[in-house]
Amino acid sequence: MESPVRVLIHGGNGRMGQSLQRLCRNDGRFEPVGAVSRKVGPRVVDGVPQFAASELAGAPAFDVAVDFSLPEGFDRVLGMCLSRGKPLVSGTTGLTDVQQAALAAAATRIPIAWAANFSLGVALLHDLVARAARALPGWNCDIIESHHTRKQDAPSGTALSLGALAAEQGAEPRYASIRAGDIVGEHTVQFTTAGERIELIHRAGDREIFARGALHVAKALHGQAPGLYRVADLLG
Ligand code: NAD
User: Fold this and answer.
1) How far is the CA of 140 from the centre of ligand 1 (A)?
2) How far is 213 from 181, CA to CA, in rounded Å?
3) Distances in Å between the alpha carbon of 67 and those of 33, 74, 103, 144?
4) How does pLDDT run across 165-199, given as a tens digit for each residue?
5) Residues contacting 85, CB < 8 A, separation 6+
6) Residue in 147, 202, 216, 219 annotated catalytic
7) How does DSSP classify residue 55?
8) C-alpha dihedral over 44, 84, 53, 60, to 10 degrees?
9) Pair 217, 80: CB distance under 8 Å
């Protein structure tokens, strides 16, 4: 039998990190070798060793790092993957242009997959939005996104990547963000002209879909050559 992929979870005790730890523990294809968080409480949780961000350099050997943290933690996990020559899967949103450039530069040395959204449905939504934007020149394009009140960045990374795709096709996207209750994530891309409107909507009901997608991508990335991989290709 294939040996499990050893996963280091960065952002370990966050909402996404906990979901990743749970999935890894219950799936023989993965071995969670450690979880790194800004601060730690108990040193081991359900058999998974826990590390503080300041201890990252001493984290155990891993095959792939999966990062769902915050922009302030991103540089360090990228640096560690570079120094160990290991792949990075990251879903951290709100990265600065400088961080995005560092990510692209690092991809010449290690395999990297970054996406604002790891759900299969949103990968398809990107294709539909590009198609609609191409077919509807001159229509208004509005992207409305809703998330829970603790989300820090706005517009969401997913809204921005949908908007970037629409803009490539000539649309001029505008954004609206709603922060309410415990909404996991909803994106509506609306194309409007006089007398008619098209709405393309994705609703995430459970953040486990993102964690599942990220682990699927982590397994696909393990053993690949350096490069920046498109998540939509690896999710399929
Ligand atoms: P959260 O606030 O619940 O968790 C953040 C985690 O990051 C915590 O474990 C925290 O300890 C850790 N962290 C913060 N600063 C750190 C640092 N300096 N070094 C190391 N770790 C640090 O957030 P969340 O809801 O789990 O989301 C995490 C990230 O993932 C956000 O950027 C969010 O937008 C993004 N996200 C992406 C997707 C996707 O599919 N790409 C889906 C959901 C969330």
Assistant:
1) 33
2) 24
3) 14, 8, 13, 26
4) 999 999 999 999 999 999 999 999 999 999 999 99
5) 109, 110
6) 147
7) G
8) 10
9) no
